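Weekly puzzle thread! Below is a chain. First person to post its structure in token form gets bragging rights.
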Amino acid sequence: MASKILITGGAGFIGSHLADHLLETGCDVRALDNLVPQVHGESSGRIRPAHLNADVELFAGDIRDPEAVGRALEGVDAVVHLASAVGVGQSMYELAHYTSVNATGTAVLLEALASQSIERLVLASCLSVYGEGLYRVPGAALMEGRERPLSRLKERDWEMRDPTGLRMFPAPTPESKRPVPLSVYAASKHLQERLCAIAGAAYGIPTVILRLAKVYGTRQALSNPHTGVISVFGARYLNDEPPLLYEDGEQQRDFIHVADVVRAFRLALESPRAAGGVFNIGSGIGRTIRSVCEELGAALGKWEVKPRVTGDYRIGDSRHCYADISLARSVLGFEPRVRFETGLHLFARWLAQQRVPECTSEADEELAVRGLTI
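Winning reply:
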């Protein structure tokens, strides 16, 4: 594996855990991060986060700044590209910002890499690029989910249906399913993928794309109300406010612990067969948002605080999507090791020791004012 690795967004949640993991394997690690307050807290500024390993060489800078990117790339052998504006809801009204950070930032990185020889580029994408996942009608073949008509959503008919009106049931979604992004965030992540694949092929940059499920664990950005549904629920619980569930709370998602995710990145950096590949990284298990919320409340001992089902639909959300991880198993040798119940209790233990601002109400109100919930 490469000896010196740059992690863009390396001071954040996943990036800092990945840095720890790579340092343990003997790599030198450099991080490029803009230390944005929405992720690192209002007092962050240019202050080095306490959770970032002291052995990580930190460059404070924006992924869209060619000079900052050029400096960060000097002498590195491989790049893990994590820097991204994250959040489905916020992306629907900050279109220019999300497109700029995610697409333009990736383009700036790729332009710099075009004139530099590196062993590997690994991009962090996400399952949201699929939009709806794969579905099955009992007694019929698998079908790709389509965007749900607003007319049915306004009638609170949440489930996916086939053209005849029969209910469809979620199935694991493989990489062969066509991406159909439903939000600006998801579209920007898909554009990141295409940029990396095209530039990687054109300039001989061995490129790997990892589509991540919902990642949870310690160091999640508790000050950011637009991402990390488990941390958003946790903030509400610790402030004795009921977590808010869109639709009926029965949407299925795939949750994976950050320790499993950082191993997947190491495997993507190491595996000779990974170059040029796109891999789902998740648990391979669909869990309802309601069940995850209730399990977190129990782990925090917040028995008296009950989730509230809003019955609202948030524009840009899919109904069900969880990963088929067969390809990652066979090519990368990836296997999730952290049981959800274990990971959730570890997260709850850490969360209970944090000072958590309650900022999700304002975020939900912002979506409602802009007509982004129905």
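Puzzle host: Confirmed. Bonus trivia for everyone else. The mean pLDDT is 94.
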